[in-house]
Amino acid sequence: MTDRDVLSRALDALRAGRSGALATVVAVEGSAYQREGAKLFVDASGSVTGLISGGCLEGEVAIVAQQAMSDHRARVLRYDTADESIFGYGMGCPGIVDVLLEPLPQGAAAAPYREWLEALLRGEQTARAVAIAPARDGEVRQFILGPHGKAGSLGVPVLDDAVQARAVDLAGASGGSATQRLGPEGAEVYIDVAPAQPRLVVFGAGDDAQPLVSAAQAVGMRVHVVDPRPAMATKERFPDAEISVLQPPRYREAALGPECYVVVMGHQMERDEAALAHALSSAAPYVGLLSSRGRRERMLVGLQTRGALPEGARDKLFAPIGLDIGAKSPEEIALSIVAEIVARRRGRSGGSLSGR
């Protein structure tokens, strides 16, 4: 269950005029199973989609959500997970978790909220800020920065400006969620910045590409599969992926922007060299090649000889591809590749957490 599932359920209910409530972790002190930005949706029947903890808070939040839907007032709920007299689970992750619980808006507030959800589900960069103090009193003051402009206000123009400046900083750091004190009065504001949804572009539609596509989709990436073979690059083999049947000379028709991560796995020199030439000259921050070191070097020499190897190309080329987890099967190799991409996005090395 991903955040996209949570947001999709919320949007479906909003469009249909049904009641519902969205819960978001807005602050964490100490340890917690989920961090700021984790979301959960509760529908009118009490059904829950998503996780904001390891399972201990969801039931409690679902109960309070019914009250929020009834009185149409927001809440900021505080849970001390170290207090076993309340939870009694021996969780082992003692911390204080603040949860913003909002009933789905009605009237004029519904339109910008719906547009925010739609932008998130389209994978567009967007930001939303909520003033915490009014939310504690049941009032949602929101300021949304979307692909088509601004909507709403936190009530003070200087505070909106401060949110906009901070959102730019967070977007440059690949997004993030945090409660911060902003503006001259130090107002407490929760900011949720979602960068453009990452895209995985796979050059190659062989059988080993299928588990890679599935693994990337499972972590929320949009996927584009490019291959010259119409019998291989099909919707039946790659459900929910964008498909392009292109011959190698036309690979440049596959757009590669700064939100794209590229994997070249065509298993044929001409196809793979054409894909590498395109990817290494693009704005894509990561280009992975499923290859041995010897084959990689032969391909790079070939590209350099033809003048198709851009300066600095080796710095963003990952080959052999994937984290070193001893992967052997196609499914394990897919896992190692996606893990390397996630580490690259987060600015991490991919080492074991036990050593930190």
Mean pLDDT: 90
Low-confidence stretches: none
Class of the largest domain, according to the CATH hierarchy? Answer: Alpha Beta
Label the CATH architecture of the largest domain: 3-Layer(aba) Sandwich
DSSP summary, beta strand count: 16
Helical residues, percent: 25-40%
Percent of residues in beta strands: 25-35%
Q: Main sheet, how many strands, which sense, barrel?
A: 6 strands, parallel
Shape category: elongated
One letter per element, helices H and strands E, the order comes to HEEEHEEHEHEEHEEEHEEEHEHEH
- What's the CATH topology label of the largest domain? Rossmann fold
Keywords:
single chain, six-stranded parallel beta sheet, 16 strands, about 30% helix, 3 domains, elongated, about 350 residues, Rossmann fold, 9 helices, five-stranded antiparallel beta sheet, alpha/beta
Outline the structure in words:
- The protein has 356 residues and is an alpha/beta fold.
- It folds into 3 domains: 1-104, no CATH class; 108-197, no CATH class; 199-346, Rossmann fold (3-Layer(aba) Sandwich), CATH 3.40.50.720.
- Helix content is 32%, strand content 25%.
- It is built from 9 helices and 16 strands.
- The chain has helices at residues 3-16, 58-71, 110-121, 132-136, 157-172, 209-218, 269-280, 293-305, 330-346, and strands at 20-30, 39-43, 48-50, 75-80, 95-103, 126-131, 142-146, 149-152, 176-182, 187-194, 199-203, 222-227, 242-245, 260-264, 286-289, 317-318.
- It has a 6-stranded parallel sheet with strand order 13-12-11-14-15-16, with helices on both faces. Strands 3-2-1-5-4 form a 5-stranded antiparallel sheet. It has a 5-stranded antiparallel sheet with strand order 8-7-6-10-9, with helices on both faces.
- A hairpin with a 4-residue loop joins β2 (39-43) and β3.
- The protein is elongated and about 65 Å long.
- The mean pLDDT is 90.
